[in-house]
C-alpha cells in the first residue's frame, strides 16, 4: 500500500497513512481524519475545500491540474504553484511516499 504523509499547516505534525491504490488522496485524508481537509462536495471537484500543497519533490510526479480543477482552485485559499485539490489526485504505487501539506485554512 502506498504511504502518504500529511504535514500540518505549521509543519509541526506529520501523519503517515497507508492509502489504497485507486483511491484519492482526499478519501484517505477523510478516512484518517486529517485535520484541515473538509471535502465538502465529496470529491466532485466542486468545492475546493480539499486543497493541499504537494511537496516540491513530488510535484512533477503528481502532475498538474486538469482545466476543471484549475478553475476550482481559483476559489481555494492561498494558492501556490504546487496547489492541488486532493480529490483529484489518484493514489498509485508510483506515489508511494507522497508528501502533501494542508493549507492554513480551506476556502
Ligand atoms: Fe470538493 Fe475536492 S472534495 S473539490
> What's the helix-strand series?
EEHEHHEE
Q: Say which molecules are bound, naming each kind only once.
A: FE2/S2 (inorganic) cluster
Per CATH, the superfamily is Beta-grasp domain
CATH class designation: Alpha Beta
Strand order of the largest sheet: 2-1-5-3-4
Strand content: 15-25%
Oligomerization category of the chains in this entry: single chain
| Mean pLDDT across residues | 97
Fraction in helix: 10-25%
- What's the number of extended β-strand segments? 5
Task: Enumerate the spans where pLDDT stays under 50 for 5 or more consecutive residues.
Answer: none
Characterization of the model:
This protein has 107 residues and is α+β, with helices and mostly antiparallel strands. It has a single domain, classed as Ubiquitin-like (UB roll) (Roll), CATH 3.10.20.30. The protein contains 3 helices and 5 strands; from the N terminus they run ββαβααββ. The chain has a 5-stranded mixed sheet with strand order 2-1-5-3-4. Strand 1 (3-7) and strand 2 form a beta hairpin. The longest helix is centred in the N-terminal third of the chain and has 7 residues, at 25-31. It starts with a strand and ends in a 6-residue tail after the last strand. FE2/S2 (inorganic) cluster binds next to loops. FE2/S2 (inorganic) cluster (FES) is lined by residues 26, 39-41, 43-50, 72, 85, 87.
Features:
107 residues, alpha+beta, 5 strands, binds FE2/S2 (inorganic) cluster
Amino acid at each position: 500500500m502506498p504511504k502518504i504523509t500529511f504535514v500540518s499547516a505549521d509543519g509541526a505534525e506529520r501523519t503517515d497513512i497507508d492509502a489504497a491504490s485507486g483511491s484519492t488522496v482526499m478519501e484517505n485524508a477523510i478516512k484518517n481524519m486529517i485535520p484541515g481537509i473538509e471535502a465538502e462536495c465529496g470529491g466532485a471537484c466542486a468545492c475546493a475545500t480539499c486543497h493541499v500543497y504537494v511537496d516540491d519533490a513530488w510535484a512533477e510526479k503528481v502532475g498538474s491540474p486538469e482545466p476543471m480543477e484549475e478553475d476550482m482552485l481559483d476559489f481555494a485559499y492561498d494558492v501556490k504553484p504546487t496547489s492541488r485539490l486532493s480529490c483529484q489526485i489518484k493514489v498509485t504505487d508510483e506515489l508511494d511516499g507522497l508528501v502533501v501539506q494542508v493549507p492554513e485554512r480551506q476556502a
